[in-house]
Amino acid sequence: MILIENLRYHSLTIDSLVLEEGITTIIGENGSGKTSFLKLVAGIALPESGTLCIDGKDPRTTEIGWVNEFPDRNILFETVHDEVASPLRFRHMPGGETESQVATCLDRVGISSLRGRLMRELSGGEKILVSLAAAMVHTPRVLVLDEYDSHLDEQYKEKIETLLQKGSSPYVIRCTQDMETAAQGDYLLYLKDGVIEQAGKPKTVFASLERTPFYPLSWRCTP
Q1: In terms of pTM, does the model score above 0.90?
Q2: R_g of the chain computed on alpha carbons
């Protein structure tokens, strides 16, 4: 359980929020606090006041996988192989086991053909896929994704969504501007001006947003 109480960070204000295991999607206008929320969950930022605990622990003592929305900000190493292997090497995993897990993860994401490529030669979408593989390779307790899907075509969006649905990370916390993607999660948060205005199952939250741009197009076309 992710428990947030009396949290204040810049313009973000959350009095009380409980998130259960599953895929939680955050939507809202630009500047509503989505990225700030994700940075707090990932332990990249610390609240100015209040608490955020993941299964009773501080985020910085929890295994976290993070993907930034800007592809180049995720890159640490020169090659795809080294980028994906880095979380395992940082944990001093034996070389043979590292190689096996890297190969398996690249295959799952569908980018085995990129294994020997240089990161600087990749497209934005390819860099995001490599970053996803690096974030997922060590099976973190929490996977935090900041608009990762904005760089992906529909085929890869569907593939990654399937991976997330079947993944081993108990918590996936993500934000997106694609309401079709948001509708596929377990829980939905709608932020406005730094405040969570709606929280619950997608069907419940979207019911209150039907007359706004934050409503899945496919739902509008369903009789």
Answers
A1: yes
A2: 18
